[in-house]
Design a protein that fits this description.
The chain is an alpha/beta fold. Helices cover about 40% and strands about 25% of the residues. The protein contains 9 helices and 14 strands. It has a 5-stranded mixed β-sheet with strand order 4-3-5-14-6. Strand 3, helix 5 and strand 4 form a beta-alpha-beta unit. The chain is elongated and about 80 Å long.
Amino acid sequence: MDRIGAMTVFVAAADEGSLSAAGRRLGMPLPSVSRKLAELEGHLGIRLMARSTRQLTLTEAGRDYLAACRDILERVAEAEQSAAGGQAAPRGELVVAAPLMFGRLHVLPVVTEFLQRHPEVNVRLVLSDRNANLLEEHIDVALRIGTLPDSGLTARRVGEITRVVCASPAYLRRHGTPASPEALRDHECVTFVGMASSLAWSFNGPQGGLRVPIRSRLTVNTADAAIAAATQGVGITRVLSYQVAEPIARQALTRLLPGFEPAPSPVNLLYARQGRLPAKTRSFLDLAATRLVEVLR
């Protein structure tokens, strides 16, 4: 069996949603398409697609195998181009994962620029505050904030961020500016449940760690909402530095207690190194590292 040919048929069928459309795309008769797909399933001993009169539906095993096939076919094309003396152009699908707000603010612009540079690449951007498993979910590159576990993956550091306390100038005019973390006891706060407790905030003091009880007038479940409420003068909030860089720059918020901020957290691009990286992954890592270092400096 011609495995590369069979994989090509399988990918075309998955992309087009039907065997006849895959045949038209490949210039191959429908019986040949059906035979190659059946041979591939017979070789693997699994069903890759559920067939009906109207459409093809990937099985769970088929979804996993499809991602592997795409990667293999892209590597074969790159190897052939390299052997012929050419520079392999990025192509195929790239899957990128990032935290929700950081991804929207800073990773999406990188993806947009990457797509403009490389017309043969499609990107699937997954924005979630859940740390996805790169290998199990076929993610090429993930941006992670915080200390990384020893996972066997490769990390490329692009900067660091920290937790910051801030409030609107209007709030500070009404209630005064706290000069120490302990002074927060007398202030109204907006807490973000994904960031810290709504009962106390931790700081670094001259004598080490310091935990200060706070009074939360408003508790929300997204950083966007906490920032919006603080900007409107509801109270003092605490979020990540990149999340309030823009409102602080335009003086809608004022950064408080900078001398008591906790140690910063690293920001890394994470990927699995399995031999030589595909051109699409190498190109995205280089662009993303350059742009994110500028943002996080």
